[in-house]
Write a structure and sequence with these properties.
The chain is an alpha/beta fold. It contains 28 helices and 30 strands. The strands form seven sheets. It has a nine-stranded parallel β-sheet with strand order 21-20-19-18-17-25-24-23-22. The chain has a five-stranded antiparallel β-sheet with strand order 3-4-9-12-15, with no helix packed on it. A hairpin with a 4-residue loop joins strand 10 and strand 11. Helix 24 packs across helix 25. The chain is globular. Its EC number is 5.4.99.2. Keywords: Cobalamin, Cobalt, Isomerase, Membrane, Metal-binding, Transmembrane, Transmembrane helix. Belongs to the methylmalonyl-CoA mutase family.
Length: about 950
């Protein structure tokens, strides 16, 4: 190790430590290039590593004031004393090949610069008095190589790790010989940048950066790298894939040996239909399964429960019992196929049925591979498919950690999701920060359950959403690995390095998908979106653009180093994917893997000035958010306070306001819109038929099971909830006894109760985005004049019926119209049509807008209209918005819906049209508000 420090008293201190027995030699040059008016302008450090021989270390220090004295200190404690003079230093070192690296640095304050080359580190500290204030933004790292490219071997340390990962095979076999006669190595370092070693460093070679944003990195310096006087520190690592802190990837070879797993998220209708879909995809190249359950299952209800009559089989597969689970995976080798299950609220009965069902088909639980999401904290922030209060939900996670650590060594006990935060509106910093903070909280939960960190942390996994912000998504994934490794290492002191590795699944954005519009029976092209769908929050224009978007996002996930990936189908903004669209989505990944050559190089973005800077910056910002969480006492307490949820909702509202203001472009939505959209086919599910089938199966299983065994098993679940027994273990017995998802969930609910969230709403986002623009003020003025004449503002209720908990769109709509002066009433989540109708009548609303995202509109909306009539208020207008296929519009109109909308134009445009109509049609109040609803609520 080499440490060079220029101290406050203008002395250069060089520290050398030896890390390998074999020796080579290097020449070290330290020189300061003069600049007008600047005492110390540049320091360039040259390292030359030779395969053999032994030479002297020579230093050259020049400035306007003469030669700096030199001090040498051994900080490594691993080699003999170092002898040096002010003219030369002789030291034994090591190396492979002949390289030259250059560093150059100029900054305004006393600053230590660390440069690590895997086996050596250089630190340079500048005194404040030596640097001109005007030269404060320059940080340069330049690497050169001596010798032809073909003579440059694969990095020795990486090669050793890769050889081990490849079970003894030669890593040189991973070198790709292209048709252009170019050798592409599987790994690059700064030493691979080719240029003339004798060429002087030019200003154009330097990279400009403001070091002030990097002060946080002092917390991540090694213990022996002490920051003098608490000044700014920049710690630049020459990192390798598979090496701490894993910025470049969790594994040495990454995709050069094995590409990511193609894992398409799917599940719909019945278990029989889903099973066939899985088998077809496996034959076509899919490498892992990802199961989507319907909302009834998510919320712990059986299909015969009246509260879920519009949700069964609509946004996922309906699973009520172990028999359903066995049919779902019939003919699929669960000891070989990795299975990911997105389940949080009803995680205990669903995981129990997966384990018990596998064993009944001959697969031992220790052989099961896959992941259960089990990420309840994000449910309280964004997705809302929770069942029990937070403290009891966290206890469930601890029970799953304990059981899987003991019995399922190949199974990931949690998938910590940032994806749903992004879909709810979180930007990359919030998504990364809150997800990492969730992970830290789950680690503490495992410790509180009596486990050691190395017993469960290696099986933690993560889940990222990948948006169209290409560079940011790559940097987010790189920074997240570094931040996770560092925080876990600092806070929990694991002995197993796998405890610090962040492994992730990724999914392309659903929010960015667009779909076609049918604005039939609406006199304007305004479209309403209350929403974020079960898989995504959506815009609805020009759906074939989604193929392009998904491809770009998939490449960002791959460059970011994902371990598995789901690519959305282009029609998922309309409904469930068709076989055709699913094939296009799957083949997107196959083409990238098989044809592009992207898999040939591990982390090709490493060393990019832009990417490394962006990685550092997003990490710094995320760390600040995590510090805010820590000040609240951790993520569990932060979630209870509502802070993360409000920040995400504010981010969502601001984003939508930017889109409406034209400050953020979405092709086909607010720019380059088509005059006429092409209709596409979609896959539709007969909800009534699926529910009828599930009810029949439930009736049969309850009639034929051992009733006494089932009763005792359910009592065992309740007792475990009371006394602290392992809930998963008790639920496995209940599943084997043919108890249902609803029964097992209720057995815990009797002890834990069912949680109900408090509805909050942000404000000011649209006013902030539009400022004092005329179009915004015109709308506000028209709403004000209406209120003056009618004696009150237009009152609108936004209803969320069924078990869909995604409320991003409803919150955004409410925020936008409230900012414009409307009186907005937001109903609670999970209402029945009866409950929504009663609230609308009690609040004396002029209209109800029903948000539908999980395909329950054909059942729930007509039921709402009937309930309003029963209560004597058929005059309250009902409209539907969200993810509604155009094919369903006629059925809704016949049921009495006055307008059907999908996402579309800006809130201000819609509201302005309303103001014009209001000023000319005030003769009858109900007609007026009909216009308001049809015109104003056509928003995204």
């Amino acid at each position: 190790m080499v440490l060079v420090t220029l101290t406050r008293n203008n002395k250069c201190r060089i520290c050398v430590s030896h890390q390998q027995k074999q020796c080579a030699a290097f020449d070290y040059g330290l020189r300061i290039l003069g600049a007008p008016g600047v005492t110390v302008a540049w320091i360039a450090c040259f390292f030359i590593f030779c395969c053999e021989g032994f030479s002297a270390l020579s230093e050259y220090v020049r400035s306007g004031k003469g030669i700096f004295p030199l001090q040498v200190t051994d900080i490594g404690g691993t080699r003999e004393d170092v002898v040096a003079t002010s003219e030369s230093l002789q030291a034994a070192t090591f190396g492979n090949g002949l390289y030259i690296s250059c560093l150059a640095l100029l900054c305004p304050t006393t600053t230590e610069f660390f440069y690590e080359k895997g086996f050596s580190r250089v630190c340079i500290t500048f005194p404040k008095s030596s640097i001109s204030h005007a030269q404060r933004h320059t940080l340069a790292t330049s690497c050169v190589m001596r010798g032809a490219y073909e003579h440059l071997p694969i990095h020795e340390e990486w090669a050793a790790s890769a050889k081990k990962a490849m079970k003894g095979k030669d890593p040189n076999k991973l070198i790709w010989h292209t048709p252009e006669d170019i050798l592409i190595k599987p790994i690059y370092t700064p030493l691979d940048r080719a240029c003339d070693k004798d060429k002087p460093i030019e200003a154009s070679d330097m990279f400009l950066a403001d070091l002030s944003c990097l002060s946080f990195l002092r917390h991540y310096a090694p213990r022996h790298s002490v920051v003098l006087n608490k000044e700014i520190i920049f710690y630049a690592r020459l990192q390798l894939p598979g090496k701490y802190p894993y910025t470049r990837g969790p594994y040495p070879t990454m995709y050069t040996q094995r590409p990511w797993t193609i894992r398409q998220y799917a599940g719909f209708s019945t278990v029989e239909d889903s099973n066939k879909f899985y088998k077809d995809n496996i034959k076509a190249g899919q490498q892992g399964l990802s199961v989507a359950f319907d909302l009834a299952t998510h919320r712990g209800y059986d299909s015969d429960n009246p509260r879920v009559f519009g949700d069964v089989g609509m946004a996922g597969v309906a699973v009520d019992s172990i028999e359903d689970m066995k049919r779902l995976f019939d003919g699929i080798p669960l000891d070989k196929m990795s299975v990911s299950m997105t389940m949080n609220g009803a995680v205990i009965p669903v995981l129990a049925m997966f384990i018990a069902g596998a064993e009944e088909t001959g697969v031992e639980r220790k052989l099961l591979k896959g992941t259960i999401q089990n990420d309840i904290l994000k449910e309280f922030m964004v997705r809302n498919t929770y069942i029990y209060p937070p403290e009891h939900s966290m206890r469930i996670i601890g029970d799953i950690f304990a059981y899987t650590a003991k019995n399922m060594p190949k199974f990931n006990s949690i998938s910590i999701s940032g994806y749903h935060m992004q879909e709810a509106g979180a930007d990359a910093v919030l998504e990364m920060a809150f997800t990492i903070a969730d992970g830290i909280q789950y680690c503490q939960t495992g410790l509180d359950a009596g486990l050691k960190i190395d017993q469960f942390a290696p099986r933690l996994s993560f889940f990222w959403g990948i948006s169209m912000n290409f560079y940011m998504e790559i940097a987010k994934m790189r920074a997240a690995r570094r931040l996770w490794a560092t925080l876990v290492n600092e806070r929990f002191k694991p002995k197993n390095k796998r405890s610090m590795i962040l492994r992730t699944h990724s999914q392309t954005s659903g929010w960015s998908l667009t779909e076609q519009i049918n604005a039939r029976n609406c006199s304007v092209r305004s479209i309403l979106a209350f929403c974020e769908a079960e898989i995504k929050w959506l815009l609805l224009q020009d759906p074939y653009n989604n193929i392009i978007r998904t491809t770009i996002e998939a490449m960002a996930a791959v460059f970011g180093g994902t371990q598995s990936l789901h690519t959305n189908s282009f029609d998922e903004a309309l409904g469930l994917p068709t076989p055709f669209s699913a094939r296009i989505a799957r083949n997107t990944q196959i083409v990238i893997q098989e044809e592009s050559g992207i898999c040939r190089v591990a982390d090709p973005w490493a060393g990019s000035y832009m990417m490394e800077s962006l990685t550092d910056e997003i990490l710094a910002k995320a760390l600040k958010v995590i510090q805010d969480v820590d000040e609240l006492g951790g993520m569990a307490k932060a979630v209870a306070s509502g802070m993360p949820k409000l920040r995400i909702e504010e981010s969502a509202a601001k984003k939508q306001a930017r889109i409406d203001a034209g400050k953020e472009i979405i092709v086909g939505v607010n720019k380059y819109r088509l005059e006429k959209e092409e209709r596409i086919d979609i896959l539709q599910v007969d909800n009534a038929k699926v529910r009828e089938s599930q009810i029949a199966k439930l009736k049969y299983i309850k009639e034929t099971r051992d009733k006494d065994r089932a009763r005792r098993a359910l009592e065992g679940v309740t007792e475990a909830a009371k006394t602290g027994g392992n809930l998963l273990e008790a639920a496995i017995e209940a599943s084997s006894a043919r108890c249902t998802v609803g029964e097992i969930s209720y057995a815990m609910e009797k002890v834990f109760s069912r949680y109900a969230a408090t509805i909050r709403m942000v404000s000011g986002a649209y006013r902030s985005a539009f400022g004092n623009e005329d179009e915004f003020n015109k709308v506000v003025d028209r709403v004000r004049r209406f209120a003056e004449k009618e004696g009150r503002q237009p009152r609108i209720m936004v209803a969320k019926m069924g078990q869909d908990g995604h409320d991003r769109g409803a919150k955004v709509v409410s925020t936008g119209f409230a900012d414009l002066g409307f009186d907005v009433d937001v109903g609670p989540l999970f209402q029945t049509p009866e409950e929504a109708a009663r609230q609308a009548v009690d609040a004396d609303c002029h209209a109800v807008g029903a948000s539908s995202l999980a395909a329950g509109h054909l059942t729930l909306v007509p039921a709402l209209i009937k309930e309003l009539a029963k209560l004597g208020r058929p005059d309250i207008l009902v409209f539907a918005g969200g993810v509604i296929p155009p094919q369903d519009y006629d059925a809704l109109y016949k049921a009495g819906v006055c307008a059907v909308f999908g996402p579309g134009t800006r809130i201000t445009d819609c509201a302005l049209e309303v103001g014009i109509i209001v000023s000319t049609q005030l003769a009858h109040e109900q007609n007026l508000f009909c216009v308001i609803i049809l015109r104003c609520l056509g928003v995204h």
